[in-house]
Amino acid sequence: MMCAEKLSITLLLNTNKIFDRNMITGIAQYINASNINWTVCLEEDINFTNEHLRDFAGDGIIASFDTAELGKKLQHVNVPIIGVSGSISPQNNQLALPYVATDNFAIIEMAYQHLKTKGLQNFAFYGLPQQSEFCWSLEREKAFSSIINKDNYPHSIHRAGVNEHQTSALHNWLINLPKPVGIVCATDARAKQIINTCEQLSLLVPQQVAVIGIDNDDISQSLSKIALSSVQHECKAMGFKAVQLLHRLIKGRNVAAQTIISPTTIHARQSSDYISLHDPDVMQAMHFIQNNATRGIKVDQVLYHLGVSRSTIEPRFIDEVGHTIHTEIHNRKVEKACSHLAQTSITLKEVASIAGYPSLQYMYSIFKKRFNLTPKQYRQHKQNVSEPECETI
Prior knowledge:
The protein is 46% helix and 16% strand. By secondary structure, it is of the alpha/beta class. The protein has helices at 18-33, 50-54, 70-74, 104-116, 135-151, 168-176, 188-200, 218-223, 235-250, 280-292, 299-306, 310-321, 325-343, 348-354, 360-371, 375-383, and strands at residues 5-12, 36-42, 60-64, 81-85, 99-102, 123-127, 155-159, 181-185, 209-214, 229-232, 258-261, 265-267.
C-alpha cells in the first residue's frame, strides 16, 4: 500500500486582515481536495527575525508581499516560495518571486460602472495615504483616475491616514463635493467612515452620496449603519491558486511569474441604491423609508417625519418614484426578506422578523402573492438547495 505524499508548508500571512483570512480558506480548500498529507504552519508573527527563516526546514512558503521588509528576509530561504498580494505590482517582491495578486483595475471598473449605471455623473475616490504599505490603495486610485478620465466626468480624490477619518479635511471634502455624487472607497472600512461622516453632516446616503466599498468585509458590514455595497475580492481563489502553484514548484515544475485574479461579484446594497430625485421632501421620505421600512413603519410615520400632509407629498412622491409611499415601504420589506433568504441560512421566522413582518404567516402570504412561491421555495430556488427545512407556519 502506497503512503500518501507528505508536504510541509508555512503561511506568512496576516490573520488580522480579512483579505489574508479569506485566502487561507482557499488554501485549505486545495489542501482538503488533494490526496496529500499536508502539514501547514500558520506563522502568527510575520515580522520575525532573519535567523528564524535561516532555520526553516519546510518544503515551501506562501508569503504576503504586502508586508514591508519580508522580501529581504526571504532571500535567506532556499525553498519554493509563492507570494500573494493586493497589488498587481507588489513593491515587496525584491527577489522577483512568482506571485498571485488581485486585479485592482477590474475591481475599480466594477465599482465605477455600478455607480454610473445608477445615473450618477459626479464621482469621487476615498483612499489611503501615498505610502508603500498602501500600494494597493494607490493602485486602485490610479485605476479610478484612468477609468473616469476616459468618460470625462468630474471627479475628486481624497486620502486620509488610518486614524484621520474624523478630521475637518474629510468633512470639508464631503461638503464641497457636487451632489449627487458616487464615491468609490479603497476598502469597506473607508466606506463605513464615509457613511458615518455623512450622518454627522446630515448628508443623505444614498440620495446625495452613494457609496461603494471593496472587500465585502463582514465586520465592516455588521458595523455599518447602512447596508454597504461592495466589490468582493476573489481571495479564496487567490489562496487556492497560490498553494496550487507552490505545489507545482515543490514538484520541480515551472509556473508563471504572475497570476492575476479578477473579481466576479458585486454586492449591491442600500449604500449605493441611488435613484435620481429632485424634490427635497421626496428625498427625505425615501431616505426615511430606506432606513426604517423593516421597523414596521406606516405611511403616517413618514408624514410625521417630513411634517407634511399626505395630500401634499403623495402626488409628488408618485411623480418622482413611480408609486405610492405605501408601495415603497412594502417593496423595501420584500427586498430585505429576499436578500436574507437568498444569502443566509437563518430560519424563516427570523427572516420575517428582520424584514419587519408581524408573523411568518404574513410573509408567507406576501411571497405567494408576489412570486407564487413560499419563502422556503424562494430560498431553494436562489440557493439551489434541496435540504429539508421546516416551514411550519
